[in-house]
Structures are given as structure tokens and as C-alpha cells.
Design goal:
By secondary structure, the chain is mainly α. Helix content is 76%, strand content 0%.
């Protein structure tokens, strides 16, 4: 009765139901794909052309063609183009992984501020990576992955356990506070290790800044199978997330095996976050900013939102990396710093909206 009356007055129930997307959000899947592809292509083109050293479009095309044929020389243009191609590819992969991971976490927890950084997942990953470096257990790309995955899982379980102790109405705030506590604890332990171990400091500080530049392309190839598994688990969980948005009881009534599907979606999200963190270090706020912007533009249905995140995440990370290269030449500001500058205001806006409710 109440739900029907509310729906007839203002369509409030339609916003929560993925089957009834608000009229302002009726965007076709084809339009999302075309627009996202164009934006990603434009961002990638800008990444190749813009930097501390100006390179003409003709030179970039020529160098890219030579690299594709394996005929590149050792000229300066070829070297610059190869470096920019590599970091653009990393930005695409990492941006998509973090955006999809953040969207999935928000859907699973029904928490608008769920983000790999805010929830302390990346802090936990950083801590385990440092401990592994100090013990001599982390060196290869897969070592970083396993260390990051253990850290993400440990931090996630700890934050979740603390969150469950709070009333339901306070759980979003409690999750953020618990995540902040995990980040602070991780940072303190990392700082103590850095002060006492110079070798670990030299290795870790390059990874910790959160950058897509200077990364080993072989690491991406090594971790590609894990990335693909995470993508499959997340992309196939859209209907589950739509059902969970209506409540677990209703999801079960709709035939969803909630516990199993939650576990699969969570595993995919954590795997994507671990891979992205292992490849580039902790790049924050991508998993918060992109899902909110995507839902604002195309609506709450998770299937479409995932497509938007597949393009929106790379666009944000590419733009952050490109901006970091040109904002203070000849120095470079890492992408993780730029995304934090962009994402912090978004977090403030979300917190203000939640407070008004």
C-alpha cells in the first residue's frame, strides 16, 4: 500500500528498482558504448600527444605504426611514444578495474561511500606488500598480487566486522570510520618499517605513490588471467546487484541465491582491486567518483552502470595521468595524487547529501 502510493506520487520507488529507471536516465546501451568509446579514445589520444615534450600527431602515428610492426628505432619520438602508450594501457586497465570494483562494493553493501581507499582495502594491501618486501617474499608481479590480495581481504574482513557492530542506519558512517582507522594503522606500521629499513623504503616508495608511469608491461601480461577472472565475476553479477538493491529478502523471493552470488561478486571486486593495486600501487577515489558520476548520468541499473564504468574509469585515470605530466613541468605529479584531488570534493558532496537525508 505505502509503496504503491509513494510510487504514484513521485516515483520514489522507481529509483530503487532497476526495472524502472527514472525518465531522465533512459539512455540506451548503444549510446553508452559509443559515447564511452569516444571519450576514452579522446583521452587516450590526448595522453599520447600531451606531455613535458610536445609530439605532433603525425609523429605519434608514425611511431605507433613502427612499434606495432616491431620496426621502431631508438629515436626520441619512438621512445616517448612507447612510454606514453605503455602508461595509457596501464591507465585503461587500472581505471576500469577500480571503477568496477568500487561499483560492485557499493552495490553489495548498499553503501554510497564504499571505495577501495576509503574502506581501507588499499591501505591493507600496502601494509602486506611492505611486510612482504621486508621479509624478502615480494619481488615478481605475482608476488605483489598475492600480497595485495591478502591485504585487501584482511582489511575488508576487519572493516566488515566492525561495521556489523553498528545499527543499520549508522553502518555507512561506521564503515568509513573503520576504513579510516585501518588506513591510519597501516600507515603507522608502514612508516615505522620505512624508517628502520632503507632498502624496503627505496623499493616501496616507487610503488606506493600510485602511478601508471614506469611500470613493467610484463607485469600486466602476468596478471592478465587474474584480471579476466575478476572481470567475468563482476560483469556477470549485475542482476544480483540489482536484486540486492531491493533487499536480501526480496532478492531471495526473486530466485537469487543471495549468499552464493554475493560471494562471487565480492570475490570479483576484491580480485580487481588487488590486481589494480599490485600493478600501480594505491590509486584512490576512482572507485568512488566514477560509479557516482555514471549513475547520475545513466541511472541506477547495474548492467548499464558497469558499461559506463568500463569507460569512465579509464577516462578518469588517463586524464589524471596526463594532467599530472603537464601541471608542473618538468616534474610529474602521480595519477594517484590527482585522483585524490578530484575525488575528495565528490566525497564531501556525497556526505552532505547523506546528512540531509
Amino acid at each position: 500500500m505505502t509503496t504503491t502510493a509513494t510510487t504514484s506520487r513521485g516515483g520514489a520507488a522507481s529509483a530503487a528498482s532497476p526495472a524502472r529507471v527514472p525518465p531522465t536516465s533512459r539512455v540506451s546501451t548503444g549510446s553508452i558504448v559509443v559515447t564511452g568509446a569516444l571519450l576514452a579514445a579522446a583521452a587516450a589520444t590526448g595522453s599520447l600527444l600531451v606531455g613535458a615534450q610536445a609530439v605532433s600527431p603525425a609523429d605519434v602515428l608514425s611511431a605507433t605504426a613502427a612499434l606495432a610492426r616491431g620496426e621502431a628505432g631508438v629515436g626520441e619520438v619512438e621512445a616517448v611514444t612507447a612510454a606514453r602508450l605503455g602508461r595509457t594501457l596501464f591507465a585503461i586497465v587500472i581505471g576500469a578495474a577500480l571503477a568496477l570494483g568500487g561499483l560492485t562494493l557499493q552495490g553489495l553493501t548498499r553503501n554510497p561511500i564504499a571505495d577501495p581507499g576509503i574502506l581501507g582495502l588499499q591501505g591493507g594491501a600496502s601494509l602486506i606488500v611492505v611486510l612482504g618486501l621486508q621479509a624478502g617474499l615480494v619481488g615478481a608481479a605475482t608476488d605483489y598480487l598475492w600480497a595485495a590480495l591478502v591485504g585487501v581481504l584482511a582489511a575488508g574482513l576487519l572493516v566488515h566486522a566492525i561495521t556489523l557492530t553498528a545499527p543499520v542506519s549508522r553502518q555507512p558512517v561506521t564503515a568509513a570510520l573503520a576504513g579510516a582507522a585501518v588506513m591510519a594503522m597501516s600507515a603507522s606500521v608502514i612508516g615505522a618499517i620505512m624508517v628502520t629499513d632503507r632498502g624496503t623504503l627505496d623499493t616501496f616508495r616507487f610503488w606506493q605513490v600510485g602511478s601508471v608511469g614506469g611500470r613493467d608491461p610484463q607485469a600486466l601480461a602476468t596478471l592478465a588471467p587474474f584480471l579476466i577472472v575478476g572481470l567475468v565475476l563482476v560483469l556477470t553479477s549485475a542482476r544480483t546487484l540489482d536484486a540486492i538493491a531491493l533487499g536480501d529478502d526480496l532478492a531471495r523471493a526473486l530466485g537469487q541465491r543471495v549468499l552464493l552470488h554475493r560471494g562471487a561478486a565480492a570475490a570479483g571486486a576484491l580480485l580487481l582491486i588487488a590486481v589494480a593495486t599490485a600493478l600501480a600501487g594505491p590509486i584512490g577515489f576512482v572507485g568512488l567518483t566514477v560509479p557516482h558520476l555514471v549513475r547520475l548520468l545513466i541511472g541506477p541499473a547495474h548492467g548499464r552502470a558497469m558499461i559506463g564504468c568500463l569507460f569512465g574509469g579509464p577516462v578518469l585515470v588517463i586524464l589524471a595521468d596526463t594532467l599530472g605530466r603537464v601541471i608542473a613541468p618538468p616534474s610529474e605529479i602521480q595519477a594517484g595524487i590527482v585522483t585524490a584531488i578530484i575525488g575528495a570534493p565528490v566525497l564531501i558532496v556525497i556526505a552532505r547529501k547523506a546528512r540531509r537525508r
